[in-house]
Amino acid sequence: YYEIFVEDEDVKVLLTYSTLFAFSINFQTFLMNGDLSASLKNASTGKEVLVYATPDPGYQVDDVRVKTDEGSIYLDLNYVGEENGAKVYSFIMPPCDVKVKLHCHAETWNITVNHNSGGVAYADRTSSPKSLGIRVTCTPDEGYRVASVTGNVTITDKGNNLYSFVMPEHDVTIDVTFKTIYNPVSV
Q1: Are the C-beta atoms of 114 and 148 separated by less than 8 Å?
Q2: How much of the chain is helix, strand and coil, in % rounded to 5?
Q3: How far apart are the first and last CA of the chain?
Q4: Where on the phi/psi map is residue 161: left (φ > 0), alpha (ψ -120 to 50), or beta?
Q5: Mind listing the pLDDT tens digit for each residue in 135-175?
Q6: Of 34, 37, 40, 116, which has the most beta carbons under 10 Å away?
């Protein structure tokens, strides 16, 4: 609403209207191992947009990227925090459409194998995601044998100094004890 006061002259009034044009926010969904959503489907230039990255069970958010459809320029993302299991990021909408991409990696836990003198023992990997079968190989020195293989997980004896377990959702420590072989000698 404008009020114009006119005295003995003609007045020409020119009104200019601008439209707030909203650009779209798209998601790249190929092999994400998680879900993406945003606070807005379309946003005008300069508007703050929140992105919610929720990893699938057994995965962690590795990277969230926002790039422009024109020129493939990556935008700066600010980590806001967590909300209902999702990591929340924000960015300022540029004057073009954007594409949001999520990368996740499987959660892994560490595997430690301890052993005393008398041989060596090792697992076939030092970290693993859950539910993967892990093999522990024990190689006693000459004159020694494997006395025990214990840990904070259920261990299966496969024979021939091979042991295995299924990776749980926590770090695993295996302790291998070697003992000398008792061979009585006739005198």
Answers
A1: no
A2: 0, 55, 45
A3: 119
A4: left
A5: 999 999 999 999 999 999 999 999 999 999 999 989 999 99
A6: 34
